[in-house]
Amino acid sequence: MEPPFSWWNMSAATAHTPVVRNAKTLGGISVAPVQSAPFTAVRHLDTASIRLRFELERLKLLRGFDELLCLEGLHGVEEMPHQIDTVRKVLRYFHGRVLLADEVGLGKTIEAALLLREYLLRGMVKRVLILVPSPLTGRWRDELAGKFGLPFDLATSGWDSRHWEQSERVVASIALAKSRRHFDLCAAAPWDLVIVDEAHHCKNRDTRNWQLVNALRRRHIFLLTATPVQNNLIELYNLLTLLEPGHLKTEADFKKKFVTRGNPRDPRNRRVLRDLLSQVMVRNTRSLVNIELPRRYAQTFAITAGEDESRLYRHLDSYLRWRCRPASAATNPVDADTAEGLDTPDMEPQTDVLATIAGGVVYHPQEGQATVPESRLVAMEETWSHPPDNLPLLHKLQLNSILMAAGSHPLALRPALERLGLQDHRAAPLLELARGLEESAKEKKLLELLGKNRGQKTLVFANFRITLDRVAGLLERHGIRSVSFTGSLSQMEKELAIDDFKHDAPVMLCSDSGGEGFNLQFCNTLINFDLPWNPMRIEQRVGRVHRIGQTREVFVFNLCTRGSLEDKILTVLNDKLRMFELVVGEVGSILGNTENGEDFETLVLDLWMKSKSADDLDAAFANLGDALLTAQADYLKTKQLDDALFGEDYA
Amino acid sequence: MSTAMTQRLRSFAVDLLEQQGALLEWPEHEESGLAVLPRSTAALLECPDSVPITATPTQAGLVVNLTSPFLERAEKIFPAAASELSLKIDTLYLKKSAMDEPVARAFAFPNARVKVLGASADRVEYHYWHFAAMIESDERWEDVVTVVLNSRSRVPLDLPDPLNNSDACAAVLDDIVPDITIAGRAAGGIITKKSGPFVQRLEQRMVRDLKRLKDYYHALLDDASPVRNRRVVDVNQQESRKLAVKLELDRKIAELRERYMLRPSLRLVALVRLDMPALAVKLNVQRRDGEKQITVFWNALIKTLEPLACDHCGAATFSVHFATDITTRCAACARRED
């Protein structure tokens, strides 16, 4: 009988061209035509070469699952043992279809990225689609490229069928992919692997999220969520049906067998259910992987800015608000502002600064002499009366960047103000005011904290390079040695900097882009000289020292200017959410429970833009705090449900 | 990567590059070293002529690691198609006693009368075909398969590797066209056998998944039927729902079959030709009115008679049946033809 794999059927006439034959089926499985390289002219080799040739083939075979390929060549990834175990388990037993449901903070994303890398390196998948909530698209793309060496395209609303078909590695927001324009295009393209992050967004089969994932043509699929069950067990059923339709039979069967009548949150036949789940789901818990971190404590210092610094921030605030108004709405900004309540003690009309240009006098303050003479502010009201009609509205990104710089240090504001000044001469006085300010009130507090922490290692974070340079100079002037650590350093320079910090320098000045993947657990004190608006980034900062291997309690000090946006953000995150006491990753889960909350940065900016007065802004932040509390309560409820269902020892 | 694996890769890289004329300074227990490569080799490996060589993937230079493209690039150093090596063993002991009894002991000829006519020293070329085989499906199976054929009798054999035989030396052999047809067929047989557990595992999983899928969607269809569905629903709505479920089932089944489809590929890596002495034993075969002379070989490496090849399927057999035209058949083929 012919063997099912009969590759060669050659006649003498076609001696050097294999004719491929297709054995139809084998054991009920269809067999594709054999792909074979043509047997063209051979080349003579010597014995040693032939030996090497065979060894080459054997070495290629060694890429078995016992040797994970994905672990080599990573940048700044500290994979943990449970993550490696998960990768092996999924490769060996799950055959590329799995629900990764690790507890928050245990690194589902790293597990998924390692698996993805393993599949790609082995050539087992080629076309990959990653669906994530909108705010996470950039982060996924950046981390896959930077840490895992896997470049991905980011799908945009302008994509057409050609993009969806031709792009082999795509990160797309699920909102974009499910949109009317892209749903069919995305579903029509064949994917070898689909990864769905925050897969609980697909818990309801009546939603387009679920329908999109169900419609995708794919061979492998990873669903990622820490909370597979949020409200009732049917959500879990829906998720697993995406993974393996029929694994839990029909919904009616599932309800009958596994859901307590009258209580959709209470599972029956838990052991059977867990057995079934264990075939398609991996869930690592803290107790299971034995990760217990020491406590961390946070303290926020809201510093009262000096008079000139306060003036700068107030004037900047008003100017930016003015620049955010469409010309049509600003025929008489002063009146409008007054009518809308801008003229409050906290936000008085900014006549003084802008008048400096209106007065036509160029003012060059000396170092440390920041005061703009009163006489030069007289013409301000007249300036305000002109609408910014020939100026473009400031883009959200510009606003975000300027406001964040203001929260960092007056020096960090200068470049942005210089750019504004080029565009609008009326902004020049702000620059003058900023140029006159060399110090920030936060500096004194920083020195005080470092003085109290003498003999201990301290990590100081700042968003802006200028701020870091300024702090470095400040510390030098006060005889405190520091080492800088930013993303622009080479690998070797980074290692030297860490070594210096570990053995000598008491302070390391770090930017957000530096420090990832390095062991800094020898340090247990962190000072946020400024703050990112995104809580996840704050969490990343803290995570540099509060991580596996840290044996001591961790202390986090946050510096912000009283009344600033950062002050308000910290009040919400710290006072309401108790963010610094939460487990790593929980903030993300809580924010994910709020409407658009995952994009906290944009949310903050929107609040600022929509508010018309300081009171208004305070009220908006109070509402945000309440929304976060509700989201936190929802998260805790969900967590309890998941704990009850899966237990602490689910493996 | 394990130390043993790193060492093995390192050793391969050093041997290969030195053979190409490279100068290497890479002490055995050092992570990195330096290589000065011939320009052509450097071009194939896509690196500068003078380059740091390392086993650590994060370092710059020529990275010798399973995750780096080193192995794929090293492959370019070898000929694009198959490699060939010709070897020769000049002398080997050949059996001198009469072959009647050994033939009678080794072979069974159920439907013919066979008589040994005589034996004589001869030289036979053996072909060692080395294939890289892969079956991709929901999982992947890979192996290197070697088929050894007697170029005269075309019977597949299990012979020791001539690369390990110190008597085998390089030679220039007569230009013959190797028969890859039979080699491919024999490779198919070996691969079918070796991949059996793999295919069986996939089959079991596919049957399970298929059943699960059908049960699920059939239950959905039942739910949509008017008898089961107590909600008052428009008949057209019910029909369209049933159609949608059926279409989705078809799509999911197609996806499942695609997922489990076996996608085999085969690549000839090398052909090693070995010319060596053998004893050719001439047999006279008489079946009904027909008569034919055939040759069997006494193999000097394994010191035994080689089986005959079934003229229908190519399999090696010692239980030799003959068709009416006195072509050989293995027992299985003979049963089928009867």
Structure description:
The complex is a heterodimer of chains A (651) and B (338). With 651 residues, chain A is an alpha/beta fold. Chain A has 27 helices and 17 strands. With 338 residues, chain B is of the alpha+beta class. Chain B has three domains: 3-77, no CATH class; 83-195 and 266-337, no CATH class; 201-261. Chain B is 34% helix and 31% strand. Chain B has helices at residues 3-19, 39-45, 70-75, 100-106, 180-194, 196-224, 235-260, 331-337, and strands at 23-25, 32-36, 50-54, 62-63, 83-88, 113-136, 140-150, 156-157, 169-170, 263-287, 290-299, 304-305, 308-309, 316-317, 321-322, 328-329. In chain B, β10 and β11 form a beta hairpin. The two termini of chain B are 57 Å apart. At the A-B interface, β2, β3, β4, α1 and β10 of A face α1, α3, β5, β6 and β7 of B.
Describe the protein's topology.
The complex is a heterodimer of chains A (651) and B (338).
Chain A: E1 25-26, E2 29-30, E3 35-36, E4 43-44, H1 47-61, H2 81-94, E5 97-100, H3 108-121, E6 128-132, H4 137-146, E7 153-154, H5 161-166, E8 169-173, H6 174-177, H7 183-188, E9 190-196, H8 208-215, E10 217-224, H9 233-243, H10 251-258, H11 270-278, E11 281-282, H12 286-289, E12 296-303, H13 307-323, H14 333-339, H15 351-358, H16 380-385, H17 396-408, H18 410-423, H19 428-435, H20 441-452, E13 458-461, H21 465-477, E14 482-485, H22 491-503, E15 507-510, E16 525-528, H23 535-543, E17 554-561, H24 565-576, H25 586-592, H26 600-610, H27 614-646
Parallel strand pairs in A: 5-10, 5-11, 6-8, 6-9, 7-8, 9-10, 12-17, 13-15, 13-16, 14-15, 16-17
Antiparallel strand pairs in A: 1-2
Helix pairs in contact in A: 2-3, 15-19, 17-18, 18-19, 24-27, 25-27
Chain B: H1 3-19, E1 23-25, E2 32-36, H2 39-45, E3 50-54, E4 62-63, H3 70-75, E5 83-88, H4 100-106, E6 113-136, E7 140-150, E8 156-157, E9 169-170, H5 180-194, H6 196-224, H7 235-260, E10 263-287, E11 290-299, E12 304-305, E13 308-309, E14 316-317, E15 321-322, E16 328-329, H8 331-337
Parallel strand pairs in B: 3-4, 5-10
Antiparallel strand pairs in B: 1-2, 2-3, 5-9, 6-7, 6-10, 7-8, 10-11, 11-12, 13-14, 15-16
Helix pairs in contact in B: 6-7
